[in-house]
Amino acid sequence: MDQSLISQREAFQKRALAVPVIEKRKPKTETNSQPPKKKRRPLPDFKNEKANKNQIGIFNNKMFQGTSKNKFRILANIVNFMRDRFKKGDNYSLTVDEILDETNMMDISTANKAWLTNDALPNNPKIAAEDGRYKYKPKFNIRGRKELLRLLDNYDQHGKGGILFDDVVDSLPHAEKKIEELKDRVIIVTRPIDKKKVLFYNDKGCQFTVEEGTV
Description:
Layout: H1 3-18, H2 46-87, H3 96-102, H4 110-120, E1 127-130, E2 133-136, H5 145-157, E3 163-164, H6 165-169, H7 175-181, E4 186-190, E5 197-201
Antiparallel strand pairs: 1-2, 3-5, 4-5
């Protein structure tokens, strides 16, 4: 190689070594650094939500119970009224308005009146409905002493036993007086379990006397 070229190369290398080199370093990253924490959304308070639902349910249930009690209180008053007037011998039919007027319940709500007209009275076993008019419906269709005696005889002949005194009272106007008039034709027995009276037919044809010494 030419000596001049060698000299130029050496001179260039010396100049290159003399120039300071600045190293561009990458910024240090903290290995232990963590990304910023995300804020958690608050969890729903199921306990309070359940408590609120329970409170709402209890309120609705109480309101329903109160409404139901009020309805059946009205119905019970009507049935008792109809039965009492039947016992006195008054069993002609009445409209709903006439019944409410007689029982001093004209101030009931429209909803309760509709319930009486469309459901409660037509479907009540103690009430007979016909053409929008209502009257008491007794358990037995008896109108006097003879029909009562015939009914008791029928029960006796078919082995049905007796009839509750209360059922007779609810089925026959002025029943106590008419039962008293038939005291020699009926037998009244008080049940030991509930102390309720039961009427039996007194069949005199089955009565006979036994002479001494026969037994």
